[in-house]
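Below is how a single chain appears once it has passed through the pipeline. First comes the sequence as given, then the structure the pipeline wrote out for it. We keep one example in the README because the format questions we get most often are answered faster by looking than by reading.
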Amino acid sequence: MALRRSSFSHHLLRRLILPSFHSHHYSKSTSIPKKQERVRDHSLDTIMEIHKKLRLALSLRELLLPFASLPISRFTTMARRSLSIPPSDLSRFLIRHPHVFHIFEHPVQRLLFVRLTPRAISQLNSETLALTNSVQSTILRLRKLLLLTTPLLRLRLEHIRLIRYDLGLPDDFEQSVILANPGLFRLVCKPDIDAARSKYVEYVPSDSDPPDIRIPAVEKSREREYRVSGSETEDSRFAFPNKFPPGFKIGKYFRVAVWRWQRLPYWSPYEDISGYDLRSLEAQKRLEKRSVAMIHEILSLTVGKRSTLERIAQFRQAMGLPKKMKEFLLQHQGIFYISTRGNQGKLHTVFLREAYFKGELVDTNEIYLARKKLEELILLSPQKANVERMLTSMGREGFGVGFGGKERLDESDGEDSGSDSGVDSQYFE
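Resulting structure:
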């Protein structure tokens, strides 16, 4: 009996003096639990469902642009070979989106043809104009992206080409942006390497750079938050905005771990850390948080504050990003959101959560608004366009809009950019 009392007293004394495993883990560690289940955000998933239709519309538009109009049979063959779209799916898509694609009967050949509607051409012209007007801000975004590779200050041309749409770069950016600005960029070719991997784009220092070019977007966000709410400097100095998805369960220990992680100092993504000793545990934690800041800055440089996980992962070696990107981002679901909708699980789209509110981008720009017009055309109900009359009547009366070449299309757009058919509005209900 005395032995049991002694053992019980000794055990109770150890419980009072020594903290438990969980208390020790969350009081000493700043790490967030690595294995986190992904909680869906339906507002952001809806964006990707719309983007699925938008990607197909953009691909079909690229096929149509060089021709102004094409016979349906030839267009079906091209879409099947280039995009692997079955003829039935293509026909269904064209009929469901008459505000973007105009199907009409040729007055002589009596065959069905397809062309872009004047409103779709107007959207394309407005996007081209937005890209032209935003060239200076686009150049700055590209320079900041190159600065994230410090001390290398260079990226493969092919990697930039893959993310050009997200950055707002034109398709011919190699000529119109890089080679056209030799004082800002340098195109370097390495010998003895295949052509796709031999070209690199290097950052060239310039006195024209703004003084805050190396200041990350999250630091500017902290400054705005401090001015509005006046939060404590110690808590907000190294913190990231957190907006967890609806239904995300935040336990007591997880909340403490996030709070400690937010207070953890880290190196700026624009800082050169090549000479630092990164072997200590504290350095590894700071390096991990720096990776969060790096991905945050990449997404901040994009037009829509989102990009695919695969495009971000291609910068892994140049920017020192972690290998298991998906698991890494799932640790920080209050900062990033990964959506698998709209692409059959083949691609993962990463959103910057703080940039969206109720499924809408908070801070818009000219390029984003121009591209948004095409989404609005896709979302318009096909019932608003009388498809039957378009097939029978628009071919004859709107014939002058479709067969005069690309210049003829641009001219017709200015005359009647509000109609989907190129004819009078009597064909719409």
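The radius of gyration is 27 Å.

See the next section for the split statistics.
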